[in-house]
Amino acid sequence: MKFNRLYIILGLVSGVSTSTISAKESAPKTTPVTQVMPSWNAAKSKAEILKFIENVSEEGGEHYVKPGDRIAVFDNDGTLWAEQPVYFQAMYTLDRVRKMAPQHPDWKDKEPFKSVLAGDDNKALAQGEPALIEMVKATHSGMTTEEFSASVRQWIHTAKHPTSGKLLKQMVYQPMLEVLEVLRNNDFKTYIVSGGGIDFMRVFTEEVYGIPPEQVIGSSIEVKFEMRAGVPVIVREPKIGFIDDKEGKPIGIHTHIGKRPIAAFGNSDGDLQMLQWTAAGKGPSLCVYVHHTDAEREWAYDRDSHIGKLDKGLDEAKAKGWTVIDMKAEWKTIFPEK
Fold first, then answer.
1. Residues spanned by CATH 3.40.50.1000 within the chain?
2. Residue 198 and residue 137: Cα distance in Å, rounded?
3. What is the pLDDT of residues 10-54, one digit of tens each?
4. 187: Cβ–Cβ under 8 A, 6 or more apart, which residues?
5. What would the CATH number be for the domain defined by 3-84+172-221+242-330?
6. 295 neighbors 327 (Cβ within 8 angstroms)
7. Which residues have a Cβ under 8 Å from the Cβ of 229 and sit 6 or more positions away?
8. How far apart are CA 195 and CA 270, in angstroms?
9. Model's pTM, two decimal places?
10. CB 266 within 8 A of CB 289
11. Residue 286: enclosing H or E segment and its boundaries?
């Protein structure tokens, strides 16, 4: 890689902390390559990511892509922040069940609510996706979109991870924050494309990742327009509208963005179709899997995991030469220090 030219292409800002990404653009300055993505070791994945950025940013080059077409999409759970031992939105759902229980006395005799109220979250979640969906519909609906956002906002600023003790919004991957920063400093538009709830994520993605609400794609429940006390509101219905997972991800991208991405980042088989869709474009593409290999600093899981299973995707990545990030070997640090 011609790093003397890459200094200029990357256009990073010296001395700027990447522990919190700002959505605002900064004046470009050259940065030594040793300061680019500093939480990464000098490993294969980092080199492949930077080389791709160099290729598509070099005006007049063979692989040049005009800025308007530099679209990068990211899964959220397990790609930008942790997802073990349970998806964070599931934690919110369980907390909502407990908070709303006094208004629903029938829940004490009805699964999966019964198990949650008995203090056995694992038993409730062991009942599978249908049980989780039932709890989501019961706890995420009936309120206006503003009321739901306020609930999530209050929760996300206080909820802590059950094993690390960190605030959930601090369980983000520092090396991935640096990837987002490098891409945006090279005229990429970065999107989240996640199986998580779109309205749930939109509350915090700008603060945590520098990704504004309009660049978030996720699963959704149905909504309707109402007049309440003479005020127009949008009300959340207890019906699942769209699941942004697996084959739903390319559909969500097409519906919300209208362009095929040239870079896609995921961590599980649920992201496979998104990476396949990205790789099928006519021009250059970058497909990246975050492989959870660090049982000491985070978690180690892939083919047999009940959360973030990476099986078919791992095989396809090897067959097609996609980038696979080995967290244990390639990341100096996992979470931001502050």
1. 3-84+172-221+242-330
2. 14
3. 443 323 333 333 333 333 344 455 579 999 999 899 999 999 999
4. 57, 67, 70
5. 3.40.50.1000
6. no
7. none
8. 8
9. 0.90
10. yes
11. strand 286-291
